Known about the structure:
By secondary structure, this protein is an alpha/beta fold.
Amino acid sequence: xxxxxxxxxxxxxxxxxxxxxxxxxxxxxxxxxxxxxxxxxxxxxxxxxxxxxxxxxxxxxxxxxxxxxxxxxxxxxxxxxxxxxxxxxxxxxxxxxxxxxxxxxxxxxxxxxxxxxxxxxxxxxxxxxxxxxxxxxxxxxxxxxxxxxxxxxxxxxxxxxxxxxxxxxxxxxxxxxxxxxxxxxxxxxxxxxxxxxxxxxxxxxxxxxxxxxxxxxxxxxxxxxxxxxxxxxxxxxxxxxxxxxxxxxxxxxxxxxxxxxxxxxxxxxxxxxxxxxxxxxxxxxxxxxxxxxxxxxxxxxxxxxxxxxxxxxxxxxxxxxxxxxxxxxxxxxxxxxxxxxxxxxxxxxxxxxxxxxxxxxxxxxxxxx
Length: 369
């Protein structure tokens, strides 16, 4: 028979990844019960939204399963009381050091969605990609890097400010479990203007990567703002991107601007996963006839010019607009996007590109300086 003290001793080896201390010493283990070969206990987390909760629970389960005669372990979760938090975390402001959450984040693929041009539906493509990947069972996050024009939270129906853990900010979580971080979640009102210069915008994006506890993700989708200036450059130089997806619309004018974004990616040695044409056509609600509202498409030609695969076309769909306005994009069927998402999965390189600033630091010229 195993007794309570043996269970507690086994759990001393389990650490909270954020705090770097034993969950027993932190006072997180409660209500230990032993019934023959079955053990149950409660873990009190600093926040139930913690992306690392699965890690902690599994480590605790395995530690107790390692005891002789234990066949089953049941772990329940609750959030710490304010008094419990204050006891283990008395100096919250001093713990918030820049980039301190990076070591807790394990992201397999980071994919940036960019266009160079505004108004082509880049954010909706980023959100649809996140939803499609989540439906396939992947762990997905969305980093809204469009600091001055954020729209991701509204699409997912997120309004409350994200919680803050012992080390960093905890991303908001959608109904389907997609983790989201956006400046709009930190503003007093969602229509509050962010009137910042370039350095502040770049700093915010770096914080969303280094100070947010993303935890374990299969895909982090980064929604870039239009253009090829500070914000986009910050993402491309400071995050280990696996690739970028370019979004355009049928007009030649849009294609010209998107080519600028493609050139930027090429100059920074970031693979272009492919080109998606959005707002490609509409269908008559009465007869179903396809209507090319913007005329003959130039997108495939543009994709050839930047030597990137053309991934497909998305129609203008009033149903998508209604779902986004209602914060229900996860309820949008998205059949047109599924084959595009599948191609993106197949074409995203497994190896991330090393951030440009790291490459510069390792260059001979940089070392000579």
